[in-house]
């Protein structure tokens, strides 16, 4: 999609935003996201309601801009002029319009025999943004769509080795250094939890580390870690029909990390970030790891396996411990589709936030409120950590609580055992990474790309 800033509309399809006190169109209230279109003098005008001007937020702007471009797609338009005026002229709201347009126009049609029509050319009229602003906004929104594509694609394509290849593309940049641990190196280096999860698969596990030095003069470094289970069968605790079908989405955390790192490199952001992807296919087979067995983690702590379907925390444990020891970040943030329990608590609208540091937690929460990728913080009291202690090993990968009780919290408590004293946050995106319902404005059906905009705001807001 080609997007430009223009002073005058050149295309025969216009998208205009209208508030209730501005509307003069019959049978149109200009409610939030309400759409009508009219034909006037060989021009198609799509009117998009903004709702009350006093209640406008960037999240709402993204929503109704997405609704507007989706109507243009329904009308099979390929060139659209976007008119922003009044309140929407500001850089804040104009940015949200462009984000909403790009995110709302997303269609996953990779496996369609007939490719649907796409928007080819867009122009923004009336905005105070410049070309550099536009480039940055487009880079972030396109990174979100890249993460969506990774999540939506077939599991037999998006393997740990495929994720390695995607990371290698970034290593062509001189600011990036890459470390890849193959299955043999994973075993040799003692990442036995990651190795165990991936050992039954014909596509071997990988630990992928993308070290981006955007500011060589600074010693400060943030690490971001993603769970990359490219398909989760549940292992020997096999998932049943009705739960196993969408399990290609279990690498959404890894998709977020790759998308963020891609965006940082592309935009030459002046910050140092280490991106870590723990990738494995949790397969059922003759070499699958066993419930009841004990494995020694990279940190040296031993873990009793109570369920092979609680595998995400195992691969993250080794990835977190390895990152902390080898790269010494000032803070570490992980993204993972970790627990179904987070859906019971928050649904698919808000992600769960867990942290050992107040400042980090508050900063991430604030970025979520600004970007619309919202977070809600949960406690990590000692009792939850105690529930992860094993009678025959140091830890167990399921808690001692009754089945299903506080599962998201105890999953985070398990991870907290592997970060030493590093400032850490865990973001459980099991609900927000995937939308099984209908499209909701800028949130598409299926993979959402949740966390990319959140993380880019968090990282760049400090510059």
List the helices and strands and how they pair.
Blueprint: E1 2-6, E2 13-18, E3 35-40, E4 43-49, H1 58-74, E5 79-83, H2 91-104, E6 121-125, H3 131-152, H4 160-170, E7 176-181, H5 183-188, H6 192-198, E8 206-213, E9 222-232, H7 252-267, E10 272-282, E11 294-296, E12 302-304, H8 312-327, E13 331-336, H9 341-346, E14 351-355, H10 358-371, E15 375-377, H11 382-386, E16 395-396, H12 407-415, E17 423-428, E18 434-435, E19 446-447, H13 452-460
Parallel strand pairs: 1-6, 2-4, 2-5, 5-6, 9-10, 9-13, 12-16, 13-17, 14-15
Antiparallel strand pairs: 3-4, 7-8, 8-10, 11-12, 14-17, 18-19
Helix pairs in contact: 1-2, 2-3, 3-7, 4-7, 6-8, 7-13, 8-12, 10-13
Main sheet properties: 8 strands, mixed
User: Which fold name is given in CATH as the topology of the largest domain?
Assistant: Aminopeptidase
Structural class: alpha/beta
Q: What's the number of extended β-strand segments?
A: 19
Report the end-to-end length measured between terminal Cα atoms.
29 Å
Describe the global form: elongated
Q: State the fourth-level CATH superfamily of the largest domain.
A: Zn peptidases
| Tally of alpha and pi helices | 13
User: Strand order of the main beta sheet, please?
Assistant: 7-8-10-9-13-17-14-15
Output mean pLDDT: 96
């Amino acid at each position: 999609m080609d997007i430009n800033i223009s002073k005058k509309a050149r295309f025969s399809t216009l998208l205009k935003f209208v508030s209730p006190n501005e509307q003069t169109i019959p049978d149109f209230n200009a409610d939030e996201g309400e759409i009508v279109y009219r034909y006037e003098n060989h021009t198609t005008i799509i009117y998009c309601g903004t709702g009350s001007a006093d209640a406008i937020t960037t999240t709402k702007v993204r929503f109704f801009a997405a609704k507007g471009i989706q109507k243009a797609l329904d009308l099979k338009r390929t060139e659209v002029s976007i008119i922003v005026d009044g309140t929407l002229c500001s850089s804040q709201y104009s940015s949200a319009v462009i984000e909403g347009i790009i995110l709302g126009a997303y269609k996953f049609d990779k496996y369609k025999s007939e490719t649907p029509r796409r928007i080819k050319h867009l122009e923004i009229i009336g905005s105070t943004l410049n070309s550099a602003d536009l480039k940055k906004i487009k880079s972030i929104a396109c990174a979100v769509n890249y993460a969506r594509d990774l999540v939506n694609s077939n599991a037999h394509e998006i393997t740990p080795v495929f994720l390695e290849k995607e990371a290698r593309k970034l290593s062509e940049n001189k600011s990036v250094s890459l470390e890849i641990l193959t299955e043999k190196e994973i075993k040799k280096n003692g990442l036995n939890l990651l190795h165990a999860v991936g050992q039954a698969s014909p596509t071997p596990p990988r630990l992928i580390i993308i070290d981006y030095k955007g500011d060589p003069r600074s010693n400060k470094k943030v690490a971001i870690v993603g769970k990359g289970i490219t398909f989760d069968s549940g292992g020997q605790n096999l998932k049943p029909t009705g739960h196993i079908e969408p399990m290609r989405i279990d690498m959404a955390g890894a998709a977020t990390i790759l998308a963020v790192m891609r965006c940082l490199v592309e935009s030459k952001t002046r910050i140092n970030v280490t991106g870590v992807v723990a990738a494995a296919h949790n397969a059922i087979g003759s070499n699958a790891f066993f419930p009841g067995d004990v494995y020694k983690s990279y940190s040296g702590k031993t873990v009793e396996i109570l369920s092979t379907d609680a595998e995400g925390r195992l691969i993250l444990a080794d990835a977190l411990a390895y990152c902390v020891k080898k790269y010494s970040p000032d803070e570490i943030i992980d993204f993972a589709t970790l627990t179904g329990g987070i859906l019971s608590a928050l649904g698919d609208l808000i992600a769960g936030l867990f942290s050992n540091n107040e400042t980090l937690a508050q900063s991430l929460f604030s970025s979520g409120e600004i970007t619309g990728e919202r977070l809600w913080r949960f406690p990590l009291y000692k009792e939850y950590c105690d529930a992860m202690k094993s009678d025959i090993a140091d830890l167990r990968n399921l808690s001692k609580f009754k089945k299903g009780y506080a599962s998201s919290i105890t999953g985070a408590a398990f991870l907290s055992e592997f970060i030493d004293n590093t400032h850490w946050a865990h973001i459980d995106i099991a609900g927000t990474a995937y939308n099984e319902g209908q499209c909701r404005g800028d949130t598409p059906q299926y993979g959402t790309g949740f966390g990319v905009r959140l993380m880019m705001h968090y990282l760049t807001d400090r510059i």
